[in-house]
Amino acid sequence: MTTVFSGIQPTGTVHLGNLLGAINNWSKISQENNNNFFCIVDLHSITTLPKKNELQKSTLSTFKALLGSGINLNSSTIYIQSQLKEHAYLSWILSSFCQVGELQRMTQFKEKAVSFGTHSGLLTYPILMASDILLHKANEVPVGDDQTQHLELTRNIAERFNQTYGDFFPLPIKTTGSTATRVMSLRHPGNKMSKSSEDLNGTIYIDDSKDMILKKFKSSVTDSENEIKYDIRNKPGVSNLIEIFSAINNQPIDKTEKMFVNVRYGEFKETVGESVATYIIPIFEKISSISDQEVKKIANENLALAKKSAETTISELKNLIGLI
Ligand code: TYM
Asked: Which residue has the higher pLDDT, 8 or 115?
């Protein structure tokens, strides 16, 4: 049996990068694989010191985004990290299998430290992430490319634990879709599309209207040529739009390139914008029809399933390492 685990921080509004790089794949996996955990990792969000009301609101809206994107609840458990205390418990145990130097080398630690300071929550963030994954003994972790380093560290931690106590944790592998594993900002195609981007026009949010989406694509940065060709180094803006279109239409990059031979940039941007709107708006409509009450009910029911899996791992682990 393959166990799949992945997580998303409830910081701000879900965006196109989250959808194409992660959630869309979760939804596909949930149609095929039978044992999946998708977690709203609110304890991770604490590291960026969110306001209480914003955190509560984003936790519910992120949960709705997962439900709205069609994750199959018969095969998948969606739950909120802070409601399952075993995440933090395991994190403490695993911290003895991780070097401080490894944590200091993490790119995300260095990037986030610029905005939030070098507090130890940001430093030990990847140990909590390893605990999320290992708590359910996950084999596969579907994430975008920005999580590669964290996944490698998780494997190192698991390997060291296993060397000390015997083969206990599987070594999880990172899985990604074939395209859009790193969606870039529409305005600054050298930077990743993100919730915290300074230029809001570079990010497509799940609650953007069709007009807004088209406007953002219209103002997307391309280059001074007029050739629709996939070339990340020399044409990052155009390549990003090609990736987005390919991911949404579930087709390879070269097919998208062929479709747009001799098409002008203006028309290309509009077509990509239209396809993004056609993809996102039904998800948002579904989300809007889900009440907070419904989310809380589903979260509670799912928590019981996640708890069972977590308690099994922790009980085996306690036995293994001598905790009475
Ligand atoms: P987070 O909340 O930043 O992002 C959630 C998922 O979205 C992907 N993603 C992107 N993919 C493509 N292009 C982008 N521009 C883009 N931006 C975000 C991320 O790769 C991720 O898959 N540390 C994690 C959360 C986490 C986690 C875990 C993930 C905590 N514990 C255990 C997997 C397993 C994070 O901050 O993701």
From this structure: 8
The two structure tokens encoding residue 214: 């088209």
**DSSP state, residue 97:** G
Of 145, 147, 151, best ligand 1 pocket probe by most atoms within 8 Å of the beta carbon: 147
Full set of structural domains in the chain with CATH: 2-177+292-321 (3.40.50.620), 200-287 (1.10.240.10)
Query: Which residues line ligand 1 at a C-beta cut-off of 6 Å?
Result: 5-9, 17-18, 21-22, 41, 44, 129, 132-133, 141, 143-144, 146-147, 150, 181-183, 192-194
CB atoms within 10 A of CB 13: 17
Over residues 236-279, the pLDDT tens digits come to: 999 999 999 999 999 999 999 999 999 999 999 999 999 999 99
Q: What's the mean pLDDT when you consider all of the chain?
A: 97
Judge whether 12 and 51 are in contact, CB under 8 Å. no
**pTM exceeds 0.85 for this model:** yes
pLDDT digits (tens, 9 = 90+) for 31-81: 999 999 999 999 999 999 999 999 999 999 999 999 999 999 999 999 999
Which residues touch 39 (CB under 8 Å, ≥6 apart)? 5, 6, 7, 8, 78, 79, 80, 81, 132, 306
Evaluate if residue 116 carries a pLDDT over 80: yes
